[in-house]
Amino acid sequence: MAVSVAPQKRRRMSKLERSDFTWGVIFASPWIIGFLALTGWPILSSIYYSFTQYSVLSASRWVGFSNYRELFMVDDVFRRSLGNSAYFAVFFVPLAIACAITIAILLNQKIHGQTVYRTIYFLPVLVPDVALSILWLWMLNPQVGLVNTIIWKFFHVQGPGWVADPKWSKPAVILMSLWTIGRSVVIYLAALQDVPQDLYDAGAVDGTNWWQRIRHVTLPMISSVIFFTLITSMIGALQMFTVPYIMSQGDGRPAQSLMFYAMALYRNAFVYFKMGYACAMAWVLFIIVMFFTLLTFRSSGRWVYYAGG
User: Fold this and answer.
1) Which domains does the chain have, with CATH numbers?
2) Considering the entire predicted model, what is its pTM?
3) Are 147 and 158 in contact (CB under 8 A)?
């Protein structure tokens, strides 16, 4: 026999609760208004402008899907920049995660001067990207750079051209970007503190070696943090701008090997004043990022472990 449950009446807010709600809205309203005016409205406007020919200096003209057709069927720079950004993301993201986890595991050991080592690995994060890029331009100089000098001194071979060589320019950016993984190291280090020591002790009793403990205990226990850094690193890699812009002097040299997607978008918007076209590029990037983010979320159930369930 079905039992019907009478719907509960919604409790009316008391005078004090209404007052708290009203004042909460009042205090939050500057942020809400600022968000709607400076973020929400521009985002919605960019959808419309992506279907127009718009240069800021003149009125917009509706062109339908022409911008998107030009992107995928005509614009070679779009395809080149998308390929460069994809290359960077595919190689940098796994390398950055692997290096950050390795360093975090080493820094988590009980050794003398542990705090000093942790500080040293985090220091590069504090250096602005522009200053770091200029420093690495000198270090990677093919003739007088520190890296090639060390290669010649120890191995007696001529080092690569790095940013002056189209084949080595993207690996150079990847190498430089790995210098700033200190933020991820700190995140992984915090996650390692929460791994129960009992699990390691149980593994030691079972006769597991160091690699088996890392594979079957450490990595599963910090998989939720790996998932977080995977998402954020992937988004950041696809939006990479400052480093390739500085290292290529803003035009993607040599041979457009450093023309990353965000740089191409910037040049269309603020060099050629093709704002409508740039908006279309922005929404293509948004769709790509959203697709891979959702794909990662979809796969997370197979490899991400949450201690709460």
Assistant:
1) 74-303 (1.10.3720.10)
2) 0.88
3) no
